[in-house]
Amino acid sequence: DSGVTQTPKHLITATGQRVTLRCSPRSGDLSVYWYQQSLDQGLQFLIHYYNGEERAKGNILERFSAQQFPDLHSELNLSSLELGDSALYFCASSGTGEETQYFGPGTRLLVL
Amino acid sequence: ILNVEQSPQSLHVQEGDSTNFTCSFPSSNFYALHWYRWETAKSPEALFVMTLNGDEKKKGRISATLNTKEGYSYLYIKGSQPEDSATYLCAHLESYIPTFGRGTSLIVHP
């Protein structure tokens, strides 16, 4: 158990819908990273937050957005969902953004 | 090298064999290199964080080296065991942006 929690574990929804994925980092960790893993892709970096502020952005679609709240939990919002958004979404946390990243169990999203 | 590349893509070894894999990354703008172990149906688990050229890290039977000038890192497993079967990922960090390789899938046969 990494100490990082993600909810929900599984999510099934329809095209065009909007979903919110939630991540709670390890106690004391200030950084949260979001990743997407599709069947035909490796782990793709989406976005990184540090202590409530966006620090780096990767290949994140405009339909996706994220935020980190004062209690340091983070949410990834996916809207206007398409079939291709079906993937495993991981969050990871670390102490300063430069150290070891601890991954949560992931949220598996299926868009039908 | 523009991307993070890992080789080989997959590897089958016998229990007790020693093995190694390679991670190649852009040598410019290096910040850090991470190694992860990813078992099926689980989450990636950090093995090493490497930041300095010439770094050597060791954890049990697993060790890693780093050459930032030429842009590669090696991961070694000594005396492979069936429980070492997993995908080994490396990630190159450039200014807080991690780029992952596709991984090396290791299967250790008893």
The N- and C-terminal alpha carbons of chain B lie at a distance of 36 Å
SS strand fraction of chain A: over 45%
Describe the largest sheet of chain B. 6 strands, mixed
Globally, the shape of chain A reads globular
Question: What are the low-pLDDT stretches of chain A, counting only 5+ consecutive residues below 50?
Answer: none
Task: Provide the helix percentage of chain A.
Answer: under 10%
* Overall SS class of chain B: mainly beta
The number of E-state strands of chain B comes to 11
Tell me the total number of β-strands of chain A.
11
- Number of helices in the DSSP assignment of chain B: 0
Radius of gyration of chain A: 13 Å
Helicity of chain B, as a percent range: under 10%
| Whole-angstrom Rg of chain B | 13 Å
Largest sheet of chain A: 7 strands, mixed
Please state the overall shape of chain B, judged from the principal axes of the Cα atoms.
globular
The overall average pLDDT of chain A, rounded, is 93
User: Total helix count of chain A?
Assistant: 0
List segments of chain B where confidence is low: pLDDT < 50 over at least 5 consecutive residues. Answer: none
Structure description:
The complex is a heterodimer of chains A (112) and B (110). Chain A is an all-beta fold and 112 residues long. Chain A is 0% helix and 52% strand. Chain A has strands at residues 5-7, 10-13, 19-24, 31-37, 43-50, 53-57, 64-68, 74-78, 87-94, 102-103, 107-111. In chain A, the strands form two sheets. In chain A, strands 2, 4, 5, 6, 9, 10 and 11 form a seven-stranded mixed sheet that branches. Chain A has a four-stranded antiparallel sheet with strand order 1-3-8-7, with no helix packed on it. Chain B is mainly beta. Helices cover 0% and strands 56% of the residues of chain B. Chain B has strands spanning 5-7, 10-14, 19-24, 32-38, 45-50, 56-59, 62-67, 72-77, 86-94, 97-100, 104-109. In chain B, strands 2, 4, 5, 9, 10 and 11 form a six-stranded mixed sheet that branches. Chain B has a five-stranded antiparallel sheet with strand order 1-3-8-7-6, with no helix packed on it. In chain B, a hairpin with a 2-residue loop joins strand 6 (56-59) and strand 7 (62-67). Classes of the chains: A mainly beta (112), B mainly beta (110). The A-B interface holds A 2, 33, 42-45, 48, 55-56, 58, 90, 92, 97-106 and B 31-32, 34, 43-46, 49, 89, 91, 93, 95-103.
